[in-house]
């Protein structure tokens, strides 16, 4: 009894194996930089989506996840006003604490510096010792308190204010 060949059953034939081998060799010839370029092109197309159009070209996975969480109502944007008038849109989860907001501010500033090519080191302990976050005249002093317990909602503005010295 003769069995049908692999080709007749739809199995791999010599031509398919050769094409597969050529494709593997082509991929091996591509450098890391080439693959990175292809990835960045795909990411740039993804960022053109109306949902993600507010994100920068050099977007991180964290930023994409934050934007999606915002769309689903799982996160909120807190606008942090600096002394120089700049407003930093900081995304945190709905039940975030003051500490979560501080960490998000730090991440925002670090990403911004990275994108601008700046390499200034920021001593965050010093920053939080000399500056307060203030919402409607109330200092956000306890890192464990949730933002919504202070009355902070989506798109509310928090001010970055220098602490006054106690004499």
What do you see in this structure?
The protein is α+β, with helices and mostly antiparallel strands and 167 residues long. The chain has helices spanning 14-29, 32-47, 61-71, 98-116, 124-130, and strands at 75-81, 87-93, 131-135, 138-139, 157-162. 11% of the residues are buried. The model is unreliable at 3-11 (pLDDT under 50).
Q: Return the structural class.
A: alpha+beta
Secondary-structure element sequence? HHHEEHHEEE
The best one-word shape is elongated
The side-by-side strand order for the widest beta sheet comes to 2-1-5-3-4
Summarize this, please?
By secondary structure, this protein is α+β, with helices and mostly antiparallel strands.
Main features:
single chain, 167 residues, alpha+beta, 5 helices, 41% helix, disordered N terminus
Q: What is the strand and helix layout of this fold?
A:
Blueprint lengths: L13 H16 L2 H16 L13 H11 L3 E7 L5 E7 L4 H19 L7 H7 E5 L2 E2 L17 E6 L5
């Amino acid at each position: 009894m003769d069995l049908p060949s692999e080709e007749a059953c739809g199995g791999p034939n010599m031509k398919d194996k050769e094409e597969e081998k050529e494709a593997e060799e082509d991929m091996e010839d591509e450098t890391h930089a080439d693959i990175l370029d292809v990835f960045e092109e795909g990411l740039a197309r993804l960022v053109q989506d109306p949902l993600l159009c507010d994100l920068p070209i050099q977007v991180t996975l964290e930023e994409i996840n934050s934007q999606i969480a915002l769309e689903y109502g799982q996160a909120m944007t807190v606008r942090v006003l600096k002394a120089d008038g700049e407003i930093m849109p900081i995304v945190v989860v709905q039940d975030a604490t003051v500490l979560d907001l501080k960490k998000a501010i730090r991440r925002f500033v670090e990403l911004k510096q990275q994108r601008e090519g700046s390499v200034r080191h920021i001593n965050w302990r010093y920053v939080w010792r000399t500056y307060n976050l203030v919402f409607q005249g109330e200092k956000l002093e306890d890192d464990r308190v949730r933002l919504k317990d202070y009355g902070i909602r989506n798109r509310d503005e928090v001010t970055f204010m220098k602490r006054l010295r106690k004499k």
